[in-house]
Amino acid sequence: MKNTIVSAKWVSEHIEDDNLIILEARLDQNQTKDTQIPGARLFDIKNTFSDTKNPLPNTFPSEEQFTTECQKLGVNNDSFIVVYDTTGIYSSPRVWFMFNAMGHTNIAVLDGGLPEWIKQGYPTEKPKETTYAIGDFQGHLNTDTVKNKEQILENIDSKKANLIDARSSDRFHATIEETRVGIRNGHIPGSVNVPFETLFKDGKYKSAADLTEIFDLNDKPLYFTCGSGITACILLLATELIGDNPKAVYDGSWTEWGQATDLPIEK
């Protein structure tokens, strides 16, 4: 198994380790807090670690972009990374997935994020602007981990992989309208729905036994989708705790599929 999740206690015991880097995952400015885990470095998904030239939100950056921006954060090839959310668990699994897709498996998600850290009484600090020594990190993208719409379309017929959708059940079953203009409602044919919120208890991942009951895993590869590729990674990380199936994320997710009128949908 890869490194997956660590507790606040584990981080507190290793926070002085020379090769430990703590990243705060941020998707948008609304996640900004006036406090952070000591020494945390900002991992800005939307503005720095996405392909901002792509009209779709939060799409995977190039290998070169990811490598350069990680080096700016002082990440080295031998770094052990812990990534956390300011609000619990939301975008940190996306960061975990990105590093794994780039060949760096020495990364784990802080279970419960900053709220759990504070709940346990561990120290915090105010964020401050910091420049880091350039790291020697080098990413190598495993293209099998990121799927495009053509591959997802082919999978509808081949059923090579199980496609799992992390969106809410009302979006999946089209009982509400999509909030984004021009996006149809419904889901990709053949996909199953596991709303990401169902994986948590008290802000942390449920036990392996509970997750095993939620996911009906077989030997097939697992593809994950959601609205824009973020919460799909919550499911992916959860299944990493209970199975070794090959896993991938549909990068365009429903934002791409739902606006493409030539692609089939179910409701």
Features of this protein?
5-stranded parallel β-sheet, globular, 2 domains, Sulfurtransferase, Oxidized Rhodanese, domain 1, 26% helix, 12 strands, transferase, 267 residues, Rhodanese-like_dom_sf, repeat, alpha/beta
Distance between the termini: 36 Å
By oligomeric state, this entry counts as single chain
For the biggest sheet, the summary is: 5 strands, parallel
CATH-defined topology of the largest domain: Oxidized Rhodanese, domain 1
Which consecutive residue ranges, at least 5 long each, have pLDDT under 50?
A: none
Number of domains: 2
Percent helix: 25-40%
Coarse morphology: globular
CATH class of the largest domain: Alpha Beta
Q: CATH homologous superfamily of the largest domain, by name? A: Rhodanese-like domain
Roughly what fraction of the amino acids lie in strands?
Answer: 15-25%
The average pLDDT value, as a whole number, equals: 95
Number of helices: 9
- The CATH architecture name of the largest domain reads 3-Layer(aba) Sandwich
Question: What is the ordering of alpha helices and beta strands?
Answer: EHEEHEHEHEHEHEEEHEHEH
Account of the 3D structure:
- Pfam families: Rhodanese (PF00581).
- Residues 16-126, 157-266 form the Rhodanese domain.
- Keywords: Repeat, Transferase.
- InterPro entries: Rhodanese-like_dom, Rhodanese-like_dom_sf, TST/MPST-like.
- It comes from Flavobacterium cellulosilyticum.
- This protein is α/β, with parallel strands linked by helices and 267 residues long.
- It folds into 2 domains: 5-119, Oxidized Rhodanese, domain 1; 143-257, Oxidized Rhodanese, domain 1, CATH 3.40.250.10.
- 26% of the residues lie in helices and 16% in strands.
- The chain has 9 helices and 12 strands.
- The protein has helices at 8-14, 63-72, 92-101, 113-119, 149-158, 169-172, 208-214, 232-240, 253-257, and strands at 5-6, 20-26, 41-44, 80-84, 107-110, 146-147, 162-165, 192-193, 200-201, 204-205, 222-225, 247-250.
- α3 (92-101) crosses α8 (232-240).
- The chain is globular.
